[in-house]
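Progress report, Aim 2. The chain analyzed during this reporting quarter is listed below.
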Amino acid sequence: MHAIPFKRTLLSLTMLSVLPLTGYAQTTGQADADASLALPSMEIRASADASAEGLRPAYAGGQVARGGRVGVLGNRDNMETPFALTSYTQMLIQDQQAASVGDVLLNDPAVRTARGFGNFQQVYIVRGLPIYSDDIAYNGLYGLLPRQYMGTEFVERVEVLRGANAFLNGAAPGGSGLGGAINIVPKRAPNVPLNQVTAGVRSGGEAYVAGDFARRSEDNRFGLRLNVARRDGDSAVDGASQELGLAALGADYLGDRLRVSADLGYQNHEVDAAQPNIDIGAGVAVPSAPDAGESVAQSWTYSDAKDTFGTLRAEYDFNDSLTGWVAGGMRTSEEEGNFANPTVLNDAGDTSAYRFFNVREDEVVTGDVGLRYAFNTGSVGHSLSASASTYEMKSRNAWGGSNFAGDVFSNINRPVDVAEPAISFSSGSLGSPSVTERTRTSSYSLADTMAFMDDRLLVTLGARHQNIASYSYDYNTGARTASYDEDAITPIAGVVYRINPELSAYANYIEGLVKGERVADLSGSTPIVNAGEVLDPYITRQTELGLKYDGGRIGGGVGVFRSRKPEAGLDESDVYRVIGKQTNVGLEFNAFGQATDSLTVLGGFSLLDTELDGNEGIGAPELQANLGLDYRVPGVQGLAVDGRVIYTSEQYIDADNSRDIPSWTRFDLGVRYSMLLNDAQELTLRARVENVADRDYWASAGGYPGAGYLTVGAPRTLMLSTTLDF
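Predicted structure tokens for the chain:
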């Protein structure tokens, strides 16, 4: 792809994208009336984050919300935010039977899900850059959620902020998030008692049962909500299986001045013989994707992860103008994994792998405190926010392996189950791993959102001072091997102008900041010379401008952005270091809402031009597009059908752009039917087929900077469930 023609199309596509929206303009009164018809019957009054404004209401159609958390700036309406933000609701999650956060994010045209480097961790690619599951925020706090995989049963909203966000959220401690941020909003008790049980089954025989129960006190000040879930059985991929156990308790208190929320959660996730990442050997052409319905994994591979986490957040109104908050959280995790990720050796699909065994234990403590003060200077309104945050992570790790040269031989088209090789060497004590990494971050932020022209013009200026300290220790001796302690100031400048009640223009300059990663021991089977070294922090600089539309029934936005980030990789001496800068230029368009009384729309597209030393970035598709339609059948009360198409263009798998994986398109279909059994009970039946055509495809290339490993897309999957509200 040539850069100049792409850049010329940005302006023209921007204008063309906005034009169809103008036909949906209507009066504010009518818009409010239409939106109210689509709101869930049990609106949450108590806030999920202990804020006075509470959750932003759902938009018409109920699939997305009218806004969400914008970091330290708090919960904001989309039309008043100089950033690209989408908040997916619990209604969408339930109707699509989305099992994981990755399943939810399939609805976002700027996001795709990949796999962790050498493990089964979910990684989310936003604007061509990864967000590790470690770096997802939980109610505004980093590092508290399960690291490998996260179920959706305790999730009220999945909020996606696209773009750099170091000022808003602080530096993501796991070393990702330069392309965006994801925040999970937990469930809270609604205004009326909730008793809900769901049972279901998936292709392969995986069974599922979940319970969702909530109560509020008579005065509605206290609320409790309990979510439990269990998944167990074989998956749609022959030979693969998973087991999930989850429990989460959320509590809240809503007083006249004081608001408090708390959460306690536990998740146990086990996967056996799941599809592994697949590397393509040097000089080998990319083969066709293998049969998605048959695992190429060895039967003895697995990943087990246990996570316990908790949070507490409180907010207090000192007076009508001054509000303070404090929040804190903890997580403990235990992981054990046995992997054998194959490398394709030739055009026949023969593969070589080695056994890699890993144990890891994490302890995380994090906290946040701040003040928000509203005042006027003449005709100018101010919302001044100040905050301080801290984060500390201690990780214990040990690993062992068999022959790096390869001792597990198979074929991606004709998998062969090989006897598990013995561990021939190890680093650290596999039975009692010692501390190998510590990360400490602290930051202070100050920002002012100024309102001019009767709130039509909003200007946000601010800065965050961030300290990142990272220490690495020898696996065997515990001696410190590398460390750094660095400071950085990341500014923000954002402008929103309300052209009219339906249309807002916005612009921003913001930076991203993450810690430099600890250099791994291996890249594929190649030993890295500077293994164990910790790289300096990375800073991304981003500019963005766009338009947002809210017609009451239909909403959306279009934006263009440009960002630059350091790029690390192996040099010619097998040293892992910063080797250049990657420039990303893109255009995004999204639309949502009710096109008609019966039809709900959710979709958009993302165009991305990445450039690194004259080449495009690994695993960064030029075009991603989504279109989801939900149709409530007229004349048949309670019956609805939905369909979704997902398109992803070609992706390069290596830095010199010599090889790529082909584009892919996936179709999903669903149907649901709700009926009243009596005045107090409602039964909802759901059926869904994902990847209707059962297409075999490479879903992603990479997920870790500089690495081009491939992930096999999921096969055709049938999901059936029934939900009883009583």
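The two ends are 56 Å apart (CA to CA). The chain is about 5% helix and 55% strand. These observations will guide the mutagenesis work planned for the next reporting period.
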